[in-house]
Design goal:
With about 240 residues, this protein is mainly alpha-helical. The chain has a domain at about 5-35 and about 105-185. The chain contains seven helices and two strands, in the order H-H-H-E-H-H-H-E-H. Strands 1-2 form a two-stranded parallel sheet. Helix 5 (about 100-140) runs antiparallel to helix 6. The two termini are about 50 Å apart. Residues about 1-25 and about 55-70 have low confidence and may be disordered.
Length: about 240
C-alpha cells in the first residue's frame, strides 16, 4: 500500500499495478474503556468540605464583638461551642453504595459494547484493505478501479475514526451524567438524613484530601451507607 494510504490525504495518489509496499492503512484505536471511578463526586464533595472549613475558621476566629449581623448568630453559636460537625468517607460511599455499583456496571457494559462495535468495523476494514492489496499485487484490477477502491477505503477508515471519537465522547457524557445523578442522590439524602440529627455540617472526607485528620467519633459513614442502600433497595428492588 502506498504511503498516502497511511497519511490519509484527501486526494488519493495513483495506485501502481505493481505490488504495493507492506504498509497497511493504520489501525484504529479502540474506544477507551469506561472507568469505575466517579471522580467528580469526590471533587464536588471536597469543594463543599473546603467551603465548610473556611466557614468554621471564620466562625472560630471572629470575635464576639463582630458588627456583621449576618453572621452574628453563627458567631455566638461558635463561641458557645455548640456547632456540630459530622463527616462521611467519600471512598466508602463510592465503594459500597449500591447505586454506584449499578452505575459502574452499566457504564462498563456500555463501554465494552461500543468498543466491540468499533473493533468489528476495524476488522472488516483490515480484511478489505488486505484483499485490495492482494488484487493490486496480482494486477487483477485496472488502475481506475484500484483508484476508486483506494478512495473508498480511505473513507471507510475515516468513518471508523469518527465513530470511535463519537463513542468516546458519548461514554464521557454518560459518566458525567452519572456523576451528577450520584451527587444529587447523596446530597438529597443528606438533607433528609439531617432532619433527624440537625448537624451544622456534614463534610466529605477523602484520604489525601483537604482534611488531614478526622476524629472517628464524627464519622457517620456506616449509618449513612446503611440508610442510602435501604432507600435504594426499597426504590429499585435491588435492580
Amino acid at each position: 500500500m502506498t504511503e498516502e494510504l497511511n497519511n490519509m490525504e484527501n486526494t488519493p495518489a495513483p495506485i501502481q499495478t505493481t505490488a504495493p509496499s507492506d504498509a497497511i492503512l493504520p489501525k484504529v484505536e479502540p474506544v477507551p474503556p469506561a472507568h469505575a471511578r466517579i471522580n467528580p463526586l469526590l471533587l464536588a464533595m471536597n469543594m463543599v468540605m473546603l467551603v465548610g472549613l473556611v466557614i468554621l475558621y471564620i466562625l472560630h476566629f471572629t470575635g464576639s464583638g463582630s458588627k456583621n449581623d449576618a453572621i452574628g448568630g453563627a458567631v455566638a453559636k461558635a463561641n458557645r461551642g455548640s456547632i456540630s460537625v459530622a463527616y462521611v468517607n467519600n471512598d466508602s460511599i463510592l465503594g459500597s453504595y449500591e447505586l454506584v455499583k449499578k452505575m459502574r456496571a452499566d457504564l462498563e457494559a456500555k463501554g465494552k459494547r461500543l468498543e466491540s462495535e468499533v473493533a468489528s468495523r476495524q476488522q472488516a476494514f483490515e480484511k478489505d484493505a488486505a484483499y485490495f492489496k492482494e488484487q493490486v499485487a496480482k494486477k487483477s484490477i485496472s488502475d481506475q478501479s484500484a483508484q476508486e477502491i483506494y478512495g473508498q477505503l480511505q473513507q471507510n477508515q475515516k468513518d471508523i475514526y469518527d465513530l470511535r471519537d463519537r463513542y468516546a465522547a458519548e461514554l464521557q457524557q454518560s459518566e458525567m451524567d452519572m456523576n451528577v445523578a450520584l451527587l444529587d442522590s447523596v446530597t438529597n439524602f443528606l438533607d433528609r438524613y439531617n432532619e433527624k440529627y440537625k448537624f451544622d455540617y456534614i463534610l466529605g472526607y477523602t484520604k489525601g484530601g483537604n482534611i488531614l485528620y478526622a476524629n472517628d467519633t464524627m464519622n457517620v459513614t456506616g449509618d449513612v451507607l446503611k440508610e442510602l442502600n435501604l432507600e435504594y433497595m426499597k426504590k429499585h428492588g435491588g435492580k
